[in-house]
From TrEMBL, chain A:
Keyword DNA damage carried by entry: no
Protein name: Ribosomal protein S11
HAMAP family the UniProt entry points to: Ribosomal_uS11
UniProt organism field: Aquatica leii
Top-level taxonomy: Eukaryota, Metazoa, Ecdysozoa, Arthropoda, Hexapoda
GO molecular function: structural constituent of ribosome
InterPro entries: Ribosomal_uS11, Ribosomal_uS11_sf
UniProtKB/TrEMBL annotation, chain B:
Molecular function terms, GO-annotated: structural constituent of ribosome
Keyword annotations: Ribonucleoprotein, Ribosomal protein
GO annotation (BP), single: translation
Any Pfam family hit: Ribosomal_S21
Listed name of the protein: Mitochondrial ribosomal protein S21
Family: Belongs to the bacterial ribosomal protein bS21 family.
GO terms for cellular component: ribonucleoprotein complex; ribosome
Length: 197, 87
């Protein structure tokens, strides 16, 4: 009798289990179905170019103020050194890394530091914090060597663009000028194909 | 074409205000569409994308021109004191 009942119950359980389905409500509660839609709804990545879209009334203010180089700029003295003989800080910014080199006025490299050398690995290399730390470390090395007044040349877009320059200044370097040397062409060779999202 | 380095695209830092100099440089680069071109040439732009972009830019330019004209029309004035009560 008892044994019979147990077998009955186990049969019932088996029936019940056959009808069970695993269902989740995750798809219903998800806000966007499509991955592309989701990507589009995300905020745009910071490309490290503050002030790009800024609108200010300028023009005539800049003419007098000496913001831009002119004919006698190369011979102008900064801290006793003519502008053309100031050491150069090259900042190479990309999406995944920031490389800083210091060279003299002829382009001979004196110091090199990158976020990877600094100890930031993988995705951490391409952050503004890494760029700033790297800039501070290379700038302190430059100060040890006795370079105080420098000009900065930036190439590329990325999160480290502003913060690297800021780091150089924070370490105590006297930055005379900032130059952009991003390589831009209006008739470039065919670039690589677009990334799939 | 290559430009003389440290002459072209150069901004001097004044009163040790690096951030302002950076902003000015970025603004100039943005306005001259140098950064846009840089971003556009990272990956190949397919012909259909090129066509769509050019058509969009054309439409935008026409709209902006018209809108500027309308704004100028609304703001037009011919008074001795152009802004009465504001002096």
């Amino acid at each position: 009798m008892l044994l019979n009942k147990i077998t009955n119950i186990s049969k019932l359980c088996g029936l019940y289990l056959n009808k069970l389905k695993i269902s989740t409500s995750a798809t219903a509660f998800r806000e966007v179905e499509d991955r592309r839609l989701m990507l589009r709804s995300m905020p745009a990545l910071d490309e490290g170019t503050a002030g790009e879209k800024a609108i200010e009334i300028d023009s005539h203010l800049y003419e007098k103020s000496g913001l831009f180089p002119d004919l006698d700029t190369p011979n102008k003295l900064f801290n006793g050194i003519p502008y053309k003989e100031l050491p150069i800080f090259n900042v190479r910014v990309s999406k995944n890394n920031t490389i800083l080199t210091m060279s003299d006025s002829k382009g001979v490299i004196k110091l090199t530091r990158s976020c990877g050398i600094e100890g930031f690995k993988n995705t951490k290399k391409g952050t503004n914090i890494a760029a700033q730390a790297t800039a501070i470390s290379i700038a302190s090395r430059a100060l040890e060597k006795g370079f105080k007044t420098v000009r900065v040349r930036v190439r590329g877009l990325g999160p480290g663009r502003m913060s690297a320059i800021k780091g150089l200044q924070m370490a105590g370097l006297n930055i005379v000028s900032i130059t952009d040397s991003t390589r831009v062409s209006w008739n470039p060779p065919r670039p690589r194909k677009q990334r799939k999202l | 074409m290559r430009h003389a380095s440290f002459i072209a695209r150069t901004v001097f830092v004044q009163n040790n205000d690096v951030e302002a100099a950076c902003r000015l440089l970025n603004r100039i680069l943005g306005r001259e569409e140098i950064l846009d071109q840089f971003r556009r040439t990272r990956f190949f732009e397919k012909p259909f994308q090129f066509r769509r972009r050019i058509n969009f830019e054309k439409c935008k330019a026409i709209y902006n021109e018209d809108m500027d004209r309308k704004i100028q029309f609304v703001l037009r004035k011919n008074r001795l004191d152009p802004f009465p009560g504001c002096s």
